[in-house]
Write a structure and sequence with these properties.
Elements lengths: L3 H14 L13 E3 L13 E6 L4 E5 L5 E4 L9 E10 L9 H18 L9 E13 L4 E15 L4
Parallel strand pairs: 1-2
Antiparallel strand pairs: 2-5, 3-4, 4-7, 5-7, 6-7
């Protein structure tokens, strides 16, 4: 069985795989890369990739059946940092009401809807996903990027990391 970290990444990717207009989203996602991809390597837009961050783990129980929680404690809001990076391409227009800005905002909306629709990602050991930050920017006159940072809170044991 895959580690809980791999199960979380797989569930996150699976939730984002559902981003299609047929499923009620703004976009038909063209790429969903679990391995990080730079925007200039993307061939079809919109696309999503991930940056897996660091995490501290706090002991919940010691001994042979040691248990741990992602973050500084069981009831804390910090956890394992995962960033979802979205790439869009649109007509030249970088004003907030323009087509590039709209493309960025539409993808942010889709990612939030896909991930937070089930904040446990269907995994019983995930207590919650906390939204940390949303960043957005234009790369050039036709390409935009968004970054949505999530903190995932989960427990694990030595036998099932």
């Amino acid at each position: 069985m895959a580690s809980k970290r791999r199960q979380i990444l797989s569930a996150l990717k699976s939730a984002i795989d559902d981003i299609t207009t047929a499923n009620g989203y703004n976009n038909d996602l063209q790429g969903n890369y679990l391995d990080f991809v730079m925007y200039d390597a993307v061939k079809s837009y919109p696309a999503v990739t991930y940056i897996v961050g660091d995490s501290d783990y706090s002991p919940l129980a010691y001994g042979q059946n040691a248990q741990y929680a992602a973050g500084s404690g069981y009831n804390s809001v910090d956890g394992w940092d995962i960033s979802v990076i979205g790439y869009v391409k649109a007509d030249r227009d970088t004003s907030f009401s323009g087509t590039l800005s709209t493309a960025i905002e539409d993808l942010i909306e889709d990612i939030l809807k896909a991930v937070l629709g089930d904040h446990t990602l269907g995994l019983s050991f995930v207590q919650n996903i906390y939204l940390v930050r949303i960043l957005r920017d234009t790369v050039d006159e036709m390409h935009g990027i968004c970054q949505i940072d999530f903190e995932v809170k989960y427990d694990f044991t030595i036998d099932a990391p």
